[in-house]
Design goal:
The structure holds 2 protein chains of 2 kinds. By secondary structure, chain A is α/β, with parallel strands linked by helices. Chain A contains 14 helices and 7 strands. The chains are: A alpha/beta, B alpha/beta. Chains A and B meet through helix 2, helix 5, strand 7, helix 12 and helix 13 of A and helix 12, helix 15, helix 16, helix 17 and helix 18 of B. Chain B: Belongs to the activator 1 small subunits family.
């Protein structure tokens, strides 16, 4: 019994639900003798991984689906031992180099070298290269990215890289210009709704189109989240009704509550309470940038234009500092305090005008 | 047995042909950029003066220390590689040490590797007895990413080993090279390539790759999107050819990751915060790159007729700040929102 997301994941390039012309192009790419390095980018839940797995299947046949997990060990130049989880088949290996933090450079160099130096056993009809899939390339350190660019050229005859990123803003141009970049835009709401319908049909359920549309709307154009929500809906209440409540991710509600707290009162005492909430969010593993974006979105709702600008500019500033530092709570709190100060001043001025 | 002998015979007699097959097979995956890299300095597009000077140096057989600078894709690396090939012929490999930013290049490497390489004396004849220049060449590509300490370590080495070694530094920004180094080299500036020359070159490549590009329209587009960077233009054309099987204007935009012009316009004309929020969300959901938008926006703002100078100043300043923050890893949502607010405010008070 697996989740719908995994169960109904398309396995063939031709069976993808959207971006069909792109799928056709990818297929024709595979059929050419020459296969470039790929850089696949798009927001989460847009189907990057699905496309890549389909592509691998197209390249190597069903053998690429027999996966095994392995832990690999590396030693950094400073003699620190690190280990990292990899998922691999006979033809490819997938790794998430950001798991090891600042030592990602070692992992990339050693791993690619390892893979590249073992040649495929030469049998007819096989590709002469293996594939290395690197996740979250945009979060790699600059060092690692520079190391990548040399390795990419050096081992091009025996291995191909498929890089996955959420956005290419943080990928250095030298890598971008060495790869064939493939943009995977998030599916539109109608596309999500039609996928939901198709999945429900396969499960033998009937889904009212209003509900499908509402799930699609609240999923932020993230297909994975939409499918999970749909499954949660089914667990909560089946048969579906069109006015059924769509469960929202609880951290979203939590952030909204926090924002409401900040808006209700601006005082140091309240700030201390807000801190508790923020800590709780961080402890539960909600990424700080998501908290930041959520707070900004909620907080600016009842401000006028000039204030919105001010707040947005401060948010950008504090968020940037958060990236440079390593204690995110400080920066989120600083932003909250700043907002309180601005908002309080604004309220007092508005009251002053009234009297 | 018979078959074995037979195959042995064939392979020995037809050696040139099999190696020919092999080389074409090997050539197939080569990027066009490498495949069509100029072989001699006379093949270099544009850059008349530089080529002139290099040619005279080569004729005299002597080479000063060189410093090439200029925007990417203008032929700096190609020029020195071609010159090296002409100087050293088939012993290029032994005589040239090429280091670029992806190699380890801290002060330690300069002290050990470069210095020991530079100290070796070489003869003025080749193994086969023909004469060749009695020095070696160290090419430091992307020298502006070297640390100042590493550059400083280089200066004495450069002087002391002039007898046996010539250095060639290549960089985009000459201002990042420390003055003691620049004063030791003869400097050459590589100009951005002229449009018609780039197009001519692209046409030649397309012709020899047997790729249909139609009239010059698409190539013009390619040049526009790449702004005088021949390497980028070639890579874009090749990607487009691989992905779509033909080269079209839309395909070029897609493979180069450019943001469509109408989105840039939309961002500049956003009226209020809600609209901005929606725009930013959609923009990121469609997986366009924020840094690319900033780049295109900067060009658009500077050339925009409908903005006053004051507005341009305000927007450009914010653009610089946001671009810096993005580079250091700031979230795209935040930076775009911030910039968008500035644009709205600027539009409201001319």
């Amino acid at each position: 019994m697996s989740l719908w997301v995994d169960k109904h994941r398309p396995k063939d390039l031709m069976k993808l639900d959207y971006h069909k012309d792109q799928a056709v192009r990818l297929k024709s790419l595979v059929q050419q003798s020459d296969f470039p390095h790929l850089l696949v980018y798009g927001p989460s839940g847009a189907g990057k991984k699905t496309r890549i797995m389909c592509l691998l299947r197209e390249l190597y046949g069903s053998g690429s689906e027999r996966l095994r997990q392995e832990t690999m060990h590396f030693t950094t130049p400073s003699n620190k031992k690190i280990e990292i989880m990899t998922v691999s088949s006979n033809y490819h290996i997938e790794v998430n180099p950001t798991d090891v933090g600042i030592h990602d450079r070692v992992v990339i160099m050693d791993l690619v070298k390892n893979v590249a130096q073992t040649h495929q056993i030469d049998s007819a009809g096989q590709r002469e290269f293996k594939v290395v899939i690197l996740n979250e390339v945009d979060d790699l350190t600059k060092d690692a990215q520079h190391a990548l660019r040399r390795t990419m050229e050096k081992y091009v005859s025996t291995c191909r890289l498929i890089l996955i990123a959420n956005s290419i803003s943080r990928v250095i141009t030298a890598i971008r210009s060495r790869c064939l970049t493939i943009r995977v835009p998030a599916p539109t709401e109608t596309e999500i709704a039609s996928v939901l319908h198709a999945v429900c049909k396969k499960e033998g359920l009937s889904l009212p189109s209003e509900l499908a549309m509402r799930i699609a709307k609240s999923a932020d154009r993230n297909l994975r989240r939409a499918l999970l929500m749909c499954e949660a809906c089914k667990v909560q209440h089946y048969p579906f009704t069109s006015d059924q409540k769509v469960p929202e991710p609880d951290w979203q509600i939590f952030i909204r509550d926090t924002a409401a707290m900040i808006l209700s009162e601006q005082s140091p005492k309240k700030l201390a309470e807000v801190r508790q909430k923020l800590y709780e969010l961080i402890i539960h593993g909600v990424p700080p940038d998501v908290i930041f974006a959520g707070l900004l979105k909620e907080l600016v709702c009842n401000c006028d234009m000039s204030m919105k600008c001010k707040i947005a500019s401060y948010a950008a500033q504090y968020e940037h500092r958060m990236r440079l530092g390593n204690k995110s709570i400080f920066h989120i709190e600083a932003f909250v305090a700043k907002f309180m100060a601005i908002y309080k001043k604004f309220l007092e001025e508005a009251l002053g005008d009234v009297f | 047995m018979q078959a074995f002998l037979k195959t042995g015979k064939i392979s020995s007699t037809d050696k040139p042909s099999t190696s020919g097959v092999k080389s074409t097979k090997k050539k197939a995956p080569a990027p066009w950029v490498e495949k069509y890299r100029p072989k001699t300095i006379d093949d270099i597009v544009d850059q008349g003066e530089v080529v002139q000077v290099l040619r005279e140096c080569l004729a005299g057989g002597d080479l000063p220390h060189l410093l090439f600078y200029g925007p990417p894709g203008t032929g700096k690396t190609s020029a020195i590689l071609a010159a090296a090939r002409q100087l050293f012929g088939d012993i290029t490999r032994e005589r040239v040490l090429e280091l670029n930013a992806s190699d380890e290049r801290g002060i330690q490497v300069i002290r050990d590797k470069v210095k020991t390489f530079a100290q070796l004396t070489v003869s003025n004849t080749r193994p086969d007895g023909r004469p060749c220049p009695p020095y070696k060449l160290v090419i430091l590509d992307e020298a502006d990413s070297m640390t100042t300490a590493a550059q400083a370590a280089l200066r004495r080495t450069m002087e002391r080993e002039t007898r046996t070694t010539r250095f060639c530094l290549i960089c985009n920004y000459v201002s990042r090279i420390i003055p003691p180094i620049t004063s030791r080299c003869s400097k050459f500036r590589f100009k951005p390539l002229a449009r018609e020359n780039v197009i001519k070159r692209l046409q030649e490549v397309c012709k020899s790759e047997a790729v249909e590009v139609g009239d010059g329209e698409v190539l013009h587009q390619a040049v526009d999107t790449c702004g005088g960077d021949l390497r980028r233009a070639l890579t874009a054309l090749q990607c487009c050819q691989r992905l779509l099987g033909k080269i079209t204007a839309d395909g070029l935009i897609e493979v180069t990751g450019l943001v469509p012009e109408n989105l840039v316009d939309e961002f500049l004309n956003v009226k209020n915060y809600n609209e901005l929020e929606r725009f930013v969300e959609n923009f990121l959901m469609d997986a366009y790159s924020a840094s690319q938008l900033l780049e295109q926006l900067s060009e658009r703002v500077v050339n925009a007729g409908h903005l006053t100078n004051k507005q341009k100043c305000v927007i450009s300043e914010k653009l610089a700040v946001c671009s810096h923050r993005l580079l250091e890893g700031g979230a795209e949502v935040m930076q775009l929102t911030d910039l968008g607010c500035t644009v709205i405010m600027a539009n409201n008070n001319p």
